[in-house]
Amino acid sequence: MDKAKPGTPLSPKDYKSDLKPVWCPGCGDFAVLSAITKALAFLSLPRENVALVSGIGCSSRIAAYTSVYGFHGVHGRALALAGGLKAARPDLTVLVAGGDGDGLSIGGNHFIHACRRNMDMTYIIMDNEVYGMTKGQASPTTRSDWDGSKLTPGGTGIRPFNAAGMALAAGASFVARGFTGDPNGLAKILVAAVEHRGFSFVQALSPCKTFRPEQMEWKKHVRAFEDGPTDDAVLADQRVNGDDGLSTGIIYQREQAVYQPQASVAGDSTQFDREFVI
Question: Whole-model pTM?
Answer without folding.
Answer: 0.91
